[in-house]
Specification:
- The longest helix is centred in the middle third of the chain and has 19 residues.
- This protein starts with a helix and ends in a 10-residue tail after the last helix.
- β3, α4 and β4 form a beta-alpha-beta unit.
- The chain is of the alpha/beta class.
- It folds into 2 domains: 146 residues, Beta Barrel (Lyase, Ornithine Decarboxylase, Chain A, domain 1), CATH 2.40.37.10; 241 residues, Alanine racemase (TIM Barrel).
Amino acid sequence: MDNKQITNLQKAVREFGSPLYIYDASKIQENYKQFTEAFKVEKLKVHYACKALNNLTILRLFKAMGSGLDCVSIQEVQLGLTAGFSPDDILFTPNNISTEEYEEAIKLGVKINVDNLITLEYVGMNHPNLPVYIRVNPHLMAGGNQKISVGHIDSKFGISIHQIPHVERIAKKFNINVMGVHVHTGSDILDPEIFIKAAELVFSVVEKFDSVTHIDFGSGFKVAYKEGDLHTDISSFGKKFSQSFNDFCEKQKRQYTLEFEPGKYMVSNAGYFVARTNVVKQTTSCTFIGLDTGFNHFIRPMFYNAHHEIENISNPTGDKKIYNVVGYVCETDSFALDRIIPEVRKGDLLLFRNAGAYCATMASNYNSRPRPAEALIHEGKLHLIRRRETLEDILATQVEVEIEF
């Protein structure tokens, strides 16, 4: 990181406080361009998976680039509509939701993705002319770890590939318009052959429904978390996958729309998380760096055992030392163990890289701590896109009752 970048990040913290999430709009735009140019097909549609980072300003940025939106809750759908997306550009892919939530989404006019037979029957009986996607579980184990592998045989997601005859029966009985077939096997997938194998299974499903016009392969592309880290070469993958997809279109003598739902790929490396050092604590076995944050703000290292590069932007050229970087939550919340970092002093700012995806969106008020502010760097200018919460925000939903205890 050069001096200008460090200066901008330090300025952001001075202006908006610590801890702070900071996003680089130019990097998001670069990622989107690289992704869309990797696929050489007649029809391509990207639905940004907004669960990765759902700030309204970020959503508007994706809309401006021509992206659609992948939503997993009715609240995300409402955020997307608020950000200006048309219902046709929103794909609703929930899991284990109520009938009422499906009804609300149908009423709003977004595209519906169904991942169980009961809901498929319900839609057929109550909305016979509604076009739907079918989410297929291909029974493929893929992903960085068990928590982000969602296409294996024991997964709660999707309709089993072995239940497709049931889907055919229900679709025929209720004359359901199956407009799309969807599959998502997991996240942090390095081997492109996983997508090719999933494609073969999905193509076999598509062949059973003449009404299908869209084929959605979810996402799961691996990003690099440190220098030299393995990652999905999207250009190479796009070339290989496009050939497979185009061959299928030629075989079927029709052009389908190829769809993906990248989230982490789009925003992970565009985000930074900056926190201030409260304490440098030497023990008999190690030196702890205690920050003004915890897993209430940045849970990925604890929840996924995720690696995030850490830089001391207050003392970038200091002598390197070994630290355990921890938070202030009243739990074990270790961001990194035995990490080599330029010497850290009380008050220094530590920067976490790859903080754009599944970081701010997974923050909580645990220990009654307010959630951090978020800022965006766009064309060299710094913008506050979410203010820091206050105790009043936390108390706003609580109801005081007149009870004598």
